[in-house]
Amino acid sequence: MSRLKVRGVGQICAAVLLSYPSLWAQTVIDTEQPLGREVFAQHTNDPITVDGILDEPVWMDAVPATDFIQREPNQGQKATEKTEIRVLYDDEAIYFGVWAYDREPEKLIINHLEQDFSHQDDDGVSFYIDTFNDDRNSYGFYINPVGAKREMQSVDEGKFQIFEWEDVWDVKTQITEEGWFAEVRIPFKSLRFSKERVQIWGINFQRRIRRRNEQSFWGPMPRRFTAFMMSYAGDLKGLEDIPREPNFKLKPFMTSRFNKFEGDDFDTEVDVGLDLKYSVTSGLTLDGTLNTDFSQVEVDVQQINLTRFSLFFPEKRDFFLENAGIFSFGQTSFRGNQANELIPFFSRRIGLSNDGQPIPILGGARLTGRTGQYSLGFLNMQTLEDGPEPANNFTVARVKRNILNQSELGGIFINRQSNLSGDYNRTYGVDANFRFWQNLRIISFLAATKTPGLENDDLASRLWVEWRTNTWEARTGFFDIGENFNAEVGFVPRTDIRKYDNSAGWRHRPRSITWIREFFPNVRNRYITDRDNRLVTRITEFKFQTNFQNGGSFQIGKSFRFERLDDPFFIRGQIEISPGDYDFDRWFVAFNSNRSALISGDVRFETGDFWDGTSKGARFSLTVKPHYKFSASAQLQWDRLRLQGGNLTTRLFNTRIEYRFSTKMFLSGLIQYNSDQRQVSSNIRFNFIHRPLSDIFLVYNEERSVEQRGPVNKSLTFKYTHMFDLF
């Protein structure tokens, strides 16, 4: 009887637990400390066919990495769907097999098919490989259920993310009633690693289930960190005697360009060039380029400048973006969030004029990578004389040394030397970056420039301190730029200032409102003086942000701004802002919808004081993605200024259309209208990847005035590249 009673009680308890699955979800893993997980790579001599069908028997011999843990939305809880990843290797490559089970595969969200796709909008799996096991730097590989792929490099645990890096690797996928599955092959020649016979790599895996806006990791981590925090990754063991063969690639290219400028006949240009890549050692790579051409690069998205400082346009050319994180100096992020302060080395200064027009590049070389505890970067480029622009040689040397657990010291030298006597510009700098207790970061640098005719007061320095937990974050920084600090190969919109920058925010996750993921009230104050400690700018901004469970957000805020203007400046034409002291009070409200949805959009409205008058501005965007092969989007920026010197209305409109025939063939179009220039510009690009790292581009550009009939300028460019993997 007692046995029956015990069994009955057990059955009742089991029934209760099964009827409340949320009780199981309350088991929370402490993710504040690394779990120290391990996965073993299984060596195989059997051939692996990369077809997305994981039917080779050797896959079942490998022990899977599984039991993924959520970072979002419920940190520490088990992932809602089961994921298994197995690792194999042979004498040429490492293989990853993905079992991404899904009880509702018909609800997979897939928006992209193209190379370098926007992985945040799709279901997907990603791999993060720290081949030197230094807990700092990594390779990232992203895939989605239809085989779209993206690769990247991460420097300093995600401080700098270079998505423009690319090399040879392959993936195939399939979707079934059980979920989706993938086979990934990465040749060892595409990676850099140490000389040890027995390798231990840091590794982590991420699964994204987009309909729940869920992110889960095999090596779990707190949600305040990015996926590139390799100190939370596990270990990949079992790799022995893997090849370290030299890797030498040659990529010749040919371009044929047809130009038609207003009032001129057609002009035809045919040119050839060469890129090369050679692995000098297992950790150092030499890249070379001759008669460099970037005609395939998408044109800049236009901006309208309503400020008195230079606008920032990001670098888009692959040669300069690859390994760019090594050359970064004194920034908290490579993606430009400090662009309004100072970037000592900004590669866009090489081969592009101030208005974005290309300057011919004869060629150059770049040596980047690691040796022991050192990260090294050396760049030399030579441009040709182009009208009033003299020929220039650019040299950049960068070295960083790892110290302590997650810190580094470094130095940089930047030189521009023209073919004109006495025309040069140099920048020197040292920096020190520290991370303590995972939550505290300290970033600092000291730099100086040397320019003929500009002596003394040529220093710049910075100290930045940041504290972040899952709930609280606070930052404080000091910036000092001398009047004669002149980094001509950098981006320095404002000199002769001292800047004090402070911000704080609180992240709260309400349990009672299921459709809201997070409230984020925050405040930021920027206090800028001249070198005589006289206030010139003060900006205080209060913002309340709400992040929704589906990935959308809503913001509302108010800013209070003071500007002291010593010299007049013209916003447009004869609309002059006179010297004086000005106070601005401005409100803004913004909404961003779920970007993974069929139809998504953003809107922002801002109004308030503006110099000696008022202004209103609005930003609208709409994106339609009916299928992962097609997407269309449109953006409108509108500003109306009412000032004492006159009224002004500006409009900036662009529309982008993309069609993906396959994972190797893409067509895109970007059409822009700028009311400032009274011009419509078009950029249409066709790209066919005819073999790994080998492309055919067909690019049409046109600039058409809205006040005249016919195109102003137009060009058609054909570019063919072919990569030879010699050894």
Structural description of this entry:
It is a single chain. The protein is mainly beta and 727 residues long. Among the domains are: 29-240, Immunoglobulin-like (Sandwich), CATH 2.60.40; 310-493, no CATH class. It contains five helices and 41 strands. It is globular. It starts with a helix and ends with a strand.
What are the main properties of this structure?
5% helix; mainly beta; nine-stranded mixed beta sheet; 24-stranded antiparallel β-barrel; 727 residues; 41 strands; disordered N terminus; Immunoglobulin-like; 53% strand
A few lines on this structure:
This protein is mainly beta. 5% of the residues lie in helices and 53% in strands. The chain has a 24-stranded antiparallel beta barrel.
Q: Would you tell me which CATH topology of the domain at 29-240 applies?
A: Immunoglobulin-like
The beta-strand count equals 41
* Poorly predicted sequence stretches spanning 5 or more consecutive residues: 1-25, 333-339
Mean pLDDT: 89
* N→C terminal distance: 77 Å
Rounded to the nearest angstrom, the radius of gyration is 27 Å
Q: Which structural class matches the secondary elements?
A: mainly beta
Helix count equals 5
- At CATH level 2, the architecture of the domain at 29-240 is Sandwich
Estimate the global geometry from the Cα principal axes: globular
Q: Describe the sheet with the most strands.
A: 24 strands, antiparallel, barrel
Q: Beta-sheet strand percentage?
A: over 45%
What's the CATH first level of the domain at 29-240? Mainly Beta
Helical content class: under 10%
